[in-house]
């Protein structure tokens, strides 16, 4: 009986740690929303403008958030807090196109199931699109989304001229099961809850 209680407790902790039950593989749009909402950072790839790398892909890690932690509180919009001093942001000023990858490998889920980050069962999502500064009416949403997950951001140096931005999604690929990538449209993605 005690063993069953421990298993139930572990399952409850896993659900809390990953923001709820993981969607089934046949619900790719929900999976994309779920993975993004449960990730605090992602790998953002830009087209480099830096000397010696010009025109080459350049990936960098950025903190992100689509809303405060907890089930059903995500908007699906990946928000970022950026400064023009950052090398990837300098790339984006020339070419705003980018891709963003997020993975459940950042959560306890894959480790708990002993899934290698490259295992398709350790779901990851690849977004393509562009980075745009948010307008004043959306800045409050972006601030709440980011500062609720990354409170340290509020104390970052003001002279770095930080600004809120979002990843404007145009294409979505989901790898969450065997058999290859699944394509999800932005319309499908935004029409479901994680």
UniProtKB/TrEMBL annotation:
Protein name per Swiss-Prot or TrEMBL: CREG1 protein
GO cellular component, one term: cytoplasm
Organism of this sequence: Hemiprocne comata
Signal peptide positions (record): 1-21
Major localisation: secreted
InterPro entries, per database record: CREG (IPR014631), CREG_beta-barrel (IPR055343), Split_barrel_FMN-bd (IPR012349)
Keywords: Glycoprotein, Secreted, Signal
Limits of the CREG-like beta-barrel domain: 23-191
Keyword Glycoprotein: yes
Family: Belongs to the CREG family.
Highest taxon of source: Eukaryota
Subcellular location: Secreted
């Amino acid at each position: 009986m005690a063993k069953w209680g421990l298993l139930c407790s572990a399952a409850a902790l896993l659900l809390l740690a990953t923001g709820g039950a993981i969607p089934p593989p046949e619900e790719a749009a929900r999976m994309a929303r779920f993975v993004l909402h449960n990730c605090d950072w992602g790998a953002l790839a830009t087209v480099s403008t830096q000397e010696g790398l010009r025109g080459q892909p350049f990936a960098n890690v950025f903190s992100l958030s689509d809303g405060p932690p907890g089930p059903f509180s995500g908007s699906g919009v990946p928000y970022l807090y950026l400064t023009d001093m950052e090398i990837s942001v300098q790339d984006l000023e020339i070419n705003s196109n980018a891709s963003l990858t997020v993975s459940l490998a950042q959560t306890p889920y894959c480790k708990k199931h002993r899934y290698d980050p490259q295992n398709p069962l350790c779901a990851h999502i690849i977004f393509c699109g562009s980075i745009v500064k948010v307008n004043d009416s959306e800045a409050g949403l972006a601030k709440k989304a980011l500062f609720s997950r990354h409170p340290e951001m509020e104390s970052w140096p003001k002279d770095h001229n930080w600004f809120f931005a979002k990843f404007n999604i145009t294409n979505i690929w989901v790898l969450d099961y065997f058999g290859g990538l699944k394509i999800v449209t932005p319309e499908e993605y935004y029409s479901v809850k994680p």
